[in-house]
Amino acid sequence: MRPALSDDSGPGSDRPRSPSPDPPQGSYPSSIGTDRGPIRSECPLVGCVLLQDLEFRQLIERLKLRCPIETIVGERVGDLKKKGALYQARCPFHEERTPSFTVDPRRGTWHCWGACSEGGDVISFLERFDGVSFLDAVRLLAQTAGEDLPETLFRKRSRARDEREVNCLDVLKRAEGLYARNLESPSDDGARAARDYALSRGLTQETLTKFGVGWSPRDGNPLHAAARRSGVTDELLIETGLVKRSDEGRVYDFFRGRLMVPIHDRLGRTIGFGARVLPQDEIRADGRPQAKYVNTPETPLFHKGSLIYASHHAASAVRRNKHLVLVEGYTDVMAAHQAGHENVAAVLGTATTDDHAALVRRLGARRVTLVFDGDQAGRNASQRALVGLLPTGVELFVATLDGGVDPCELILGDNGSERFAELLDGAADWFAWALHGLSGLGGAALANGVDELFELLIRIPKAVERSARIAELSRSLGLPEGDVRLQWREFEASHSNRSRPRRPESRPATASDDSDGVKDEYDALDEAALAAHAPDESDPELERVFESLLGALLLDNSLIPMYGELVAQCPEGDLAGVFRLMLSMYDNADDDQPIDGGRLLSALGEHPLRSRIALLEDHASAAESPLVLARDQELWLERRKHEHELEQMKRAFHSTDHAFDGDTAAKADVLRNLYEELRRRRVPERPTQDSTTA
Known about the structure:
The protein is of the alpha+beta class. Helices cover 47% and strands 10% of the residues.
């Protein structure tokens, strides 16, 4: 148990100090040297932090221990190497040649010393690298640690505007369970046929359970009825895409008579379904064909263009071997995982987008192999998949299947796992695969084929690589390079007049949109709480002084009792909030764990102040020592204070100059008193090494 903070606690309490000025009007004074009680009851920021209750803070600390930052970062940053006590790499957030990105496993923090000049803990890194929220980053850590998280921990932290999204996710998860139970129904002939079909493909019951495969009955509206009995509204069901409303106003199940495959986001949350009709039902009773596959329609949660099926299952294997394999179908993925190829996933619809490319990068893949059919349809699918992946800069390969065999049949056949591994090992570089497709063509067909290849080359971000590929193309075709480049320039000119593939400008409004005007949990406190971390138009040099001071206190907690009272001089804003939080944690600590940047980040949770914490420690670590750094900042503050007092005295003297009315003796006496007062208050220079050891 640490001693309570007071002016006479801790080492160095006998150092000379001048009286501290009264705190500015409206500030929140420290408990140091006061009888106002602990800061916890007075600081709005600390009130915010208390929303991160003990159970949640312990969860975060436990996940950090089980998921070391060097492991999580190393899975995503390929060139992270150990150098002394630190790890170094080129920063993943900006282009650079010399490594400026460091990871400190002792503190559990990272920092970019280059253009980014940012830092944080493992959660901050996941937020930035994976593009997720604070709570989703915690979920990712829990997945890595293999820990099941009770949703109640997240539900009470979800902002009011996210409550509808939480409800939608809950409904979809329950629907997955209902469909899975339907598949086991002994009285439903359709369910029996669905089970027989899945097992006939060679899939095991264990695999069906792992991927949550289910069945939607052909007749009636059982899902709608079950949801209504549970109190779920029609509007919520419609928003999730589980039901539809007819023009007459009748609500009915969207999925009927289909094998149901849950589709999850990369956090493993059910956000939609893919549904396959059974082979015997592909032709309706009236002779009309029906779609073999149907997906959940676009909803606030389900965007087909940004999903990679089974990415959450494949993530660990991809990060281990840096290799992602993309196939076309759900059963292809299931078969691959069943055979031990756990780095296999699928793009819904095969056409890749910028969102897919971003997800591939976040998975940590350096190599992507496409496995599609060898016919023209498969070739077209490969072409569409390459379009979105080429800008990522990962190595791209294409493996083609011949003889009308799909990956599922290959993998679950005789020696299938080995044959699939050989197929991947023999995959061709994407450009070699594209050149092979031009062989045997001539005339207009060749010119059109070259234009199709140019559609891929235009996606390569580096001009030198594009130029090298064009030269390789001309050699492969046996054509003058000038002719090939002429067609390239014509293609570029026409391409500039077309809109390039890009993310849609608008999507369906999501439950997390700000348009509803609902404030988040921090906004809901009070206006004083908002003011506590609002920007303050203070002196930038004063800001830097307190940044250095806080960094020193984080590096050496024994300095907190010595310098904590300086919080009264800290300008209101982010730094004052962090300072008060640190003092509160010290005052109320019930263990001997250091209050460092990592622990402070855990306490802050998703508060916006967390972005500044790691930088405080990193900048302070370059100083001679935390003690020297803290002492220098205190001396600077003392000098600044006395310079201010001197300026006030000068103004007071000049404003009353007329009162002396020519009495030079009286005037000299006042000046002499002012001089003596200033001399008495003179701030001592920083002690030398000799004076401190004498």
